[in-house]
From TrEMBL:
<keyword id="KW-0808">Transferase</keyword>
<protein>
    <submittedName>
        <fullName>DNA methylase</fullName>
    </submittedName>
</protein>
<dbReference type="InterPro" id="IPR029063">
    <property type="entry name" value="SAM-dependent_MTases_sf"/>
</dbReference>
<keyword id="KW-0489">Methyltransferase</keyword>
<dbReference type="GO" id="GO:0032259">
    <property type="term" value="P:methylation"/>
</dbReference>
<dbReference type="GO" id="GO:0008168">
    <property type="term" value="F:methyltransferase activity"/>
</dbReference>
């Protein structure tokens, strides 16, 4: 009898002695502290990360180096075929709403490099399904999915857009927000059911509040928390991918 095979676990991924199929493997580029990675792990993937910064809090194996160089090397060597899918969160400062809105109008900030297009070019070259994540703003991606913390009962809004390459997923309806994001706006304090997962001051949440609101417990570094994707987002995407590709049995 032919053994079940899951692409992403080497030449052949046989069922284990318990009859459970090994998890498909996902590459997490620009991985930061692992918000996206944890969601994919909970959905049923084995995850490897890559980030140019040292990320000791990343909860899975990762490569410390430039994500695009690393991806190009994996493609050239053929090692990319160990993976079943790739997630990428290229730096978003070039096109995010804050950079092109408030900061630009006030002459604040600095020039930022747009890595979305070169990331997509390399992802297309892998021949694998992929996900590109970006916040609201002017980043040029196809918004196949737009997710919000209220969809998952989180204490943040944190809208994020996802371009899906080589596969499709149902688009969930956007859930109306229950109120405002807590904090100061133009010198006035507003209360609300959500915390602001960015910056410092201005009524911003404490680190424990951020951890609770985002659903992230393995790092207490504010910068990592404010840059992260809530794991609930990518758990939703990961489960949709496994359903779409018929590999639901991979979840361990």
């Amino acid at each position: 009898m032919t053994q079940p095979r899951v692409f992403g676990e080497g030449p052949l991924a046989p069922a284990t002695r318990t009859g459970r199929v090994p998890r498909p493997r996902l590459l997490d580029l620009f991985s930061c502290a692992g918000g996206a990675a944890m969601g994919y792990h909970r959905a049923g993937f084995a995850v490897d990360g890559c980030d140019i910064a040292d990320r000791p809090n990343y909860p899975f194996p990762y490569h410390h180096g430039d994500a695009l160089t690393y991806l190009a090397d994996l493609i050239a060597s053929g090692e990319i075929r160990r993976y079943s899918a790739v997630h990428a969160s290229p730096p978003c400062q070039h096109g995010c709403a804050l950079t092109v809105g408030t900061n630009a109008s006030q002459g604040w900030g600095r020039a930022h490099v747009d890595l979305v297009a070169p990331t997509r070019d390399l992802l297309d070259a892998t021949g694998l399904p992929y996900m590109i994540e970006q916040p609201n703003g002017r980043a040029v991606i196809r918004k196949d999915l737009t997710l919000c913390g209220e969809m998952f009962g989180l204490g943040v809004i944190r809208h994020r857009n996802f371009e899906l390459g080589g596969w499709t997923a149902p688009r969930p309806a956007h859930v109306p927000h229950r109120g405002r994001v807590r904090g100061y706006r133009h010198g006035r304090f507003y209360d609300g059911p959500y915390v602001a997962a960015y910056g410092n001051g201005g009524g911003k949440p404490s680190v424990p509040e951020l951890q609770t609101a985002m659903g992230i417990t393995w790092t207490d570094v504010r910068e990592e928390l404010t840059e992260a994707i809530p794991p609930a987002y990518t758990e939703f995407i990961g489960r949709a991918y496994l359903a779409a590709t018929g590999t639901l049995g991979a979840a361990a």
